[in-house]
Amino acid sequence: MIIEARHLCMQMRGVEKQCGQAVTSAMLGAFRHNKQTRDEFLALIRPKIS
Q: How would you label 24-48 residue by residue, b for 16+ Cβ within 10 Å and e otherwise?
C-alpha cells in the first residue's frame, strides 16, 4: 500500500509550502517477502521520466 497526501496545514499555515506532500508505504504478504514481486510492483507505479 502506498499513500500520497498533501498536508493542508503545510499549505495554509506557517510553512506555506504549496507542494507539501508526504508518501507512506507498507509492504505486506508477497510484497514484503519476495523482492522480485516488490520490485516489479514499484517499477509499475513509479512515474515515468521522459
A: eeeeeeebeeeeeeeeeeeeeeeee
Q: Is 35 within the bounds of a domain?
A: yes
Handedness of CA 9, 12, 15, 17 (dihedral sign): positive
How far is the C-alpha of 24 from the C-alpha of 14, rounded, in Å? 23
* Residue-number span of the structural domain to which 28 is assigned: 2-45
- pTM comes to 0.53
Q: How many residues does the chain have?
A: 50
pLDDT digits (tens, 9 = 90+) for 1-50: 778 777 776 666 666 666 667 778 888 999 999 999 989 988 888 776 55
